[in-house]
Each structure stands twice: as structure tokens, then as C-alpha cells.
């Protein structure tokens, strides 16, 4: 394996451009912090405009050769990457835990979901085929073809540093494009690790680039004439900015934003199962997941039982560093974010929600940015904690009189990333599937995360664009279609 600096404390993160590791030459930097102990472990140095321009130039040049390579040849480094990711997943998970804070089990799960995308992209020779119709008109055969476009970029958030870059990279390069990843400046070590494996997998220089930085790096990429398209995953205000800026600069763009998802608990549901799934959905990754369900909309008939069982189960929830085998949940990403979440809890109390389980009273490790799970009851969806994305371990229970009111409550959210329903009634499941306004829907599953061969994307303020991440949508995003019309009058 190539020389790595991921486990060398206090080393800077490097860019990977044209097949070489280079130091970024911009002026700003960001500390990478082990949130379980509150210690800086490395720094992200930001790229200068020149660094970004060089990455785009190199990628544009590499594209000219890469696009001509047979598709079978383009997927060989992906097969090797899959094997390398599997061989190194344990070590990579430890890097991920260190820079992010999630538990090792969550990190391993996330890496597995990333590998799944590499596997799906290995099927590009079939997926990229379009259509052919002989004798589409007199003496005419017609063939649809899909062609790669050039340089694509993906800008990714802190909360899934392994999986989210892999929603994009494998499909971009397998379809014949070249690619630039701009990972979160808060959690770039996992991306650096993946790029060390990418180097070993043997992609030709310039096909994949890693460029570190913050918002200036993003804006330089979005305004660059030679970048054909951008994928974004992050908060809603930045998603809107990326969508608008990329579109104003003539690029195709898909921008995934924030979320405030709901679980509906029908009076027909298996309450014990629903409690178990709700806890995992709301609190895994300390609630820092776009698919977390931080609101449970519960039928009045089962509300008290559901609330009591939840509060009781939280007594056994273990908050500890992510490498601790007993940890159910690790710390939040930063002290600043912990303060934000604490402010939401205070606001919840001020606005009259009932505090059923107060995570602030629970003993957690002294160092680091820990906060135990918190549970509010009788939340009104119009309260601040009922409608805003908190992105922390805070679950709100909303009491409803019937199923109609439950669906209305879910649909009144400005967001539409995901929703889940716990029920034993097929008719409710059907109504839920037809009427709920969200992109990822789960029935009797707390976290509606599609496999990589299905697309992933939200609705409303959770997504800007049309083609989503993962699966077949990626083929359409990364290619342009042409129809080839052929006539041979002598034939
Ligand atoms: P963020 O929006 O702060 O940052 C995401 C990326 O945007 C980073 O790479 C960052 O460098 C860049 N960025 C930040 N500010 C920018 C600006 N002003 N201009 C240009 N670029 C900028 O998000 P985050 O805090 O890293 O991640 C958490 C958010 O991501 C949550 O809102 C969460 O719901 C969302 N998220 C959504 C999905 C989804 O699929 N919808 C998945 C994961 C996370």
C-alpha cells in the first residue's frame, strides 16, 4: 500500500492530483478533531485556486484518453478497488471512527454501503447500454448511445466520509468521465485513505482527483468552465447555493440537502419492534444522519405505551467512544455542534414540549463532545424542535388522533428525505406509499436506506435537481444520450 499519513498524528491532509500526492497551497486550514477526546489529530490545508485549476486541467486531459478506453478496461480498477476496500475495511473503519466519532459498527456498515456502489458500478457495461431498433423507419436503423461528458465533481459532507464519496466516484469513472472529490474539511482522512487504495487499484493518473478545502474550493469548482457537472450532499442552504451556482454556470447538478424525517407508529403496530427500530433510527450516529427519524408521529391509543417503553429502553443506552465495543452511540462532531443541540433542547422546554428523558442528566465521558439521547413528548410539529433539522440525539414524539392526521403531519414538513411507518395493516402501508411526500419510504423499517442498485434522493427542501445518487440515475447523470440514425440506400 502507498505511503499513508492517516495514522500519523498531526500530519496534514494532502491532495491527489494527476496520480501524485501534493500539499494544498491555499491559506486556510481546518482542524480534524477526535471528537471522543476533543483533541486535534491532523489538519486539512485548503487548496488554492491554482490547485483547483490544476486538478481540473489534469482531469480534463485524462478524460480525452479515458473516454476512449473500452468499458471492460475502465471497470478493472473498480474490481480491484472493491477487493482493496474489503481487505482494508477494518483499518479504514478505525480512521473513520477517529475523525468522525461514530461507533466502529456504524463505520463498518457505512463502508459496506460504499463498497456496494463500487459493485454496482462494475455492471456499467450492461447499465450503460441504451437501445437499438432495426427498421425504425423505411431503410433506417436507430441506435441510442450514451456518452461520457468530461470532468465531474462531488462535494461531500462530514457524516458519511466513506459511503457518500462512493455514491458518485465509481459511476463517474466507469461511464468514462474523470472525477474530482472535494470531501468535508472536517472528516477528510477517510477519503484520503480511500484514495490511497484508489492509487493502488491502478486508475490512470488524472482520472480521479482528491482536492481538499472549504467553500472557496467548492465555488472555484462550480465556476470552472471545464467542470461539466457537480454532485452535492450537505445542508439545505448550501445545497441551494450549489444548485444555483452550478446551474448558473451551465453545469448539470444534483444537490442533496438536509432532512427532518418522521416515523409513523400506527395503533396496529408491534410496539416493542417499533420502539427498538425508532431508537436505532433516531440515535445511531448520534442522530447525525440524513435518514435519521428524529420525529415519531404516534397514534393516541398507543402513545403512552410507546413513550414509556422508549424512555425505559434509553436507560440501557451506552454512550461511549466509538472504538469501545459497548458503545451504542459516540460523540457529536464538535463542541460547537453539541452547543447547538443543547440550545435546541432548551428551546424545546421553553416552547412547552414535555421532557421525557433528559440526556443532559446522564453521565457521559468527560472529554469529547458527548451528549446522551434526549426524548421529548407532546411536541407540536410547529415547535422549533418539531420542524427544524437538529442533527443530534433528540427525538420528538408527536401525538395524533388517526392515520390521516399522521400523514398530514409528515407532509407539512419543508423536508422530504425519508419517512417510515410501523403497521400491521396493508391498507395503511398502501396509503402511506401513495400519499407521503418523501423520497425514501420504509414500512416496518426504521431507516429507509435503499441498496446501491436503487437511487437515493429526497424531495422538497431535501433535494435540488432531478437525477439522484446511486444506481441507474447515476448513469443518466454522468452521460449524454444521442440517437444514431443510419440509412444505407444501396443495402
Ligand atoms: P455542510 O453543508 O456544512 O457541508 C457540506 C459540504 O459543503 C462540505 O464539503 C463543505 O466544505 C461545503 N460547504 C460548506 N459551506 C459551504 C458554502 N457556503 N459554499 C460552498 N460549499 C460549502 O454539511 P455538513 O455539516 O458537512 O453535513 C451535514 C448536513 O448534510 C446535514 O444537513 C445533513 O442532513 C446533510 N446530509 C444530507 C444527506 C442527503 O442524502 N440528503 C446525506 C448526508 C448528509
What does this protein structure show overall?
The protein has helices spanning 49-66, 71-87, 89-100, 104-121, 124-127, 163-166, 169-174, 189-201, 215-223, 236-248, 271-283, 300-314, 335-350, 384-387, 403-411, 426-435, 471-477, and strands spanning 12-13, 15-17, 20-22, 29-34, 39-45, 132-137, 140-148, 151-155, 178-182, 208-210, 227-233, 252-256, 262-265, 295-299, 354-357, 374-377, 394-400, 415-416, 418-422, 440-443, 459-460, 463-464, 479-487. With 491 residues, the chain is an alpha/beta fold. It folds into 2 domains: 11-257 and 462-484, Aldehyde Dehydrogenase, Chain A, domain 1 (3-Layer(aba) Sandwich), CATH 3.40.605; 262-443, Aldehyde Dehydrogenase, Chain A, domain 2, CATH 3.40.309.10. The longest helix has 18 residues, at 49-66. The N and C termini lie far apart (57 Å). The site of nicotinamide-adenine-dinucleotide has 28 residues, from helix 9 and helix 10.
